[in-house]
Write a structure and sequence with these properties.
Length: 160
């Protein structure tokens, strides 16, 4: 069964929960699922992005993927793997993804491009989840150069 041009899975393989994400991961193995795509997978948003959003290191080759649609973000190499995690897109098929904490910080970094409401809603869902780690959120924000906006949003969210 073809997932994307040149990317096949066995016809008798169990169905993948996230075939689009899996296809992108096979086409670009170094890429990391990020931003709204990661937020949806971490259940931090109800938004479904029209394209799989992935991060690649700034100086690396930009993957050219016709299908599924992909939006590529270029991240600094020094912090590229900060918050790196993985999840099963299909049985036994792990895909690289940023953890929930990094995802919230990235949404705050790109809030003007991706939408303030998405970023703030993700932050609020993150803070109400049992695994929330506000101190780690601030640590990531500092490493990624967005400490001020994350701190301000965290103060507002915590005041409720």
């Amino acid at each position: 069964m073809e997932l994307s041009r040149g990317v096949f899975r066995r016809a008798d393989a169990p169905p993948a929960s996230y075939p689009d994400v899996l296809a992108v991961a096979y086409r670009s193995p170094r890429a990391i699922v990020c931003c709204v795509s990661a937020a949806a997978l971490h259940e931090l948003t109800d938004e479904m992005p029209p394209a799989v959003q992935i991060a690649v290191p700034k100086r690396s080759h930009t993957p050219v993927i016709d299908y599924p649609p992909v939006t590529v973000f270029r991240f600094e190499e020094t912090t590229f793997e900060l918050g790196l995690s993985s999840f099963e897109a299909g049985p036994g098929e792990a895909v690289r993804i940023y953890d929930a904490t990094r995802t919230v910080v990235d949404l705050m970094r790109f809030r003007r491009r991706l939408g303030e409401p998405i970023a703030h809603a993700a932050l609020n869902r993150y803070l109400s989840s049992p695994g929330a780690r506000p101190a780690l959120l601030l640590q990531y924000a500092e490493a990624l150069g967005t400490f001020g906006p994350v701190r301000a949003a965290l103060d507002v969210a915590s005041a409720r």
